[in-house]
Amino acid sequence: MLRAKLYFDLEKQCILSEEQVTEVERIDDGRLLVTKRSCGALPVIRRNHGKLRGMDRVSGSQRVFDILVFRRGDLKRIVEELNDIGTVSLGQLSPYDERGGTLSARQAEVVELALDHGYFEWPRETDAETLAEKLDIAHPTLLEHLRKAEKKLLVEALDHGSETASPPKERAFMLEEPGSEA
Hints:
Elements: E1 2-9, E2 21-28, E3 31-36, H1 41-47, E4 51-52, E5 57-59, E6 62-69, H2 72-85, E7 88-95, H3 105-116, H4 128-135, H5 139-158, H6 168-175
Antiparallel strand pairs: 1-6, 1-7, 2-3, 4-6, 5-6
């Protein structure tokens, strides 16, 4: 399974016509928020067996899709079909490792206890020493579990967790079907 990040150029995505616009809201003097019907990127991803990871987001003039695909051919078809309706570029391609973003059982236990007892509230409703006592572990051990869990969750949330992402020169190789020539 592969994880791919696709950048879809919003300016070239489709011609904005009056019937596509569902809502217009003024954000400030120089910006409007325009809500419109989709031009078809999501159906293309789904039709080619892609699975969206989280919500797509807008970054500058691009719409960013973080997707999972099972086969290189599916990803190639997604890119080809998106290029038919706009401009798309492959920003990142990496093997998908489901375990990379998950917490260990102990980390999940510590985070859940911390959440349940208000450790992350402001002001805190409990402290780390109290949580450590409840788990019958040392205070520094609890803090280590919390830090490691927070790092995993934050990296995943900020979407910089792909430490195994391929460099640009390797992307073309990874898109090739096994046994085909470049």
